[in-house]
């Protein structure tokens, strides 16, 4: 179910406050989001996955192993696993810059507002919500 406009605004305010409070943590969380990889990164992941699949099957055909264990197939599996991670976490960090810039722009538009802790602002909003009802 999509968020209402009010919920979207609240979420945006929380994100902006997070960027203002701890930009290093916020950018690291933004970079680790799933499903944010570009088309080029997905294509690279597919190519690496196919290479891993070739190694996996080729290792069984060539039958080179250590102690009866097909080591080339193991390498192929690890390459396939890495390609899957690349497809999921493939964001190269460029996407987080626009969100960070948006957060700073919202911060600058407030002017000379007094600096308060994130938790204090959230508590104040929570209390205002119940005062309005």
From TrEMBL:
Region annotation Disordered: where it falls in the sequence: 93-133
Record bears the keyword RNA-binding: no
Transmembrane regions listed in the UniProt entry: 43-65, 71-90
Compositional bias annotation for Basic and acidic residues: 117-133
Swiss-Prot/TrEMBL keywords: Membrane, Transmembrane, Transmembrane helix
Entry-linked Pfam families: DUF3040 (PF11239)
Protein's UniProt name: Transmembrane protein
């Amino acid at each position: 179910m999509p968020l209402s406009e009010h919920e979207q605004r609240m979420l945006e305010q929380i994100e902006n406050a997070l960027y203002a409070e701890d930009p290093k943590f916020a950018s690291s969380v933004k970079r680790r989001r799933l499903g944010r990889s570009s088309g080029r990164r997905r294509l690279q992941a597919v190519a690496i996955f196919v290479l891993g699949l070739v190694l996996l099957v080729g290792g069984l055909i060539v039958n080179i192993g250590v102690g009866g264990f097909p080591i080339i197939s193991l390498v192929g599996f690890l390459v396939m696993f890495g390609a899957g991670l690349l497809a999921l976490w493939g964001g190269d960090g460029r996407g987080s810059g626009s969100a960070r810039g948006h957060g700073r722009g919202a911060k600058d538009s407030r002017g000379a507002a007094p600096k308060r802790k994130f938790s204090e602002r959230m508590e104040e909003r929570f209390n205002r919500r119940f005062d309005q009802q």
